Amino acid sequence: MKNLAIFASGTGSNAERLMSYFRDSGYAVVKLVVCNNPSAGVLEIARRNGVEVLLQDNSIFSGDGASLVDELKHRNIDLIVLAGFLRKIPVSLIHSFSDRIINIHPALLPKFGGKGMFGDNVHQAVLAAHEKETGITIHLVNEEYDKGRILFQGKCMLHENDTVADVRAKVHELEHRFFPEEVERYIKGI
Ligand code: GRF
Known about the structure:
CATH class of the domain at 1-98: Alpha Beta
Distance between the termini: 11 Å
Mean pLDDT: 96
Low-confidence stretches: none
Radius of gyration: 16 Å
Helix content: 25-40%
Largest sheet: 7 strands, mixed
Order of helices and strands: EHEHEHHEHEHEEH
Bound molecules: 5-O-phosphono-beta-D-ribofuranosylamine
Number of helices: 7
Strand order of the largest sheet: 3-2-1-4-5-6-7
Shape: globular
CATH architecture of the domain at 1-98: 3-Layer(aba) Sandwich
């Protein structure tokens, strides 16, 4: 049984899907939610699901992250899953959890990725580029933003009158459908 830590900064709908998916899985358990935002919706989701929360001040993520590594190792965390986490992961964490940090990005990388590309910014850029499709990318995290090895991509078609809200809904549907099972697929291989 692998121990998962979810890092999230916002609503937490993906975190909630992961918690419910792994409640019945024999492969992993969500042991911890790490969050940098005291008003994030994910905190209530964690409480409702009986998952421990580690609320970290933003300064932790601009430092060397050593204390965070200790917190994770102390809890025997095997895999970190970023689900809407808006801070850059400290290099010490990437080195301590090499090929053990997974992220989900709401677009088809390598397009529409990089610093500042999160949430509706991504969907607005996709619409502005008149893309015919968009989707999700599940990838390993390395030292460069959104550049780690791609594990999975899911696509959806776009229509010319789609709004940002339409794109957000289509992408969220893909995320909730595929993220948990792709995390489990990766866990089976480690
Ligand atoms: C998702 O769109 C995900 O792709 C991105 O952050 C968002 C998190 O949404 N990394 P939620 O907080 O899980 O609802």
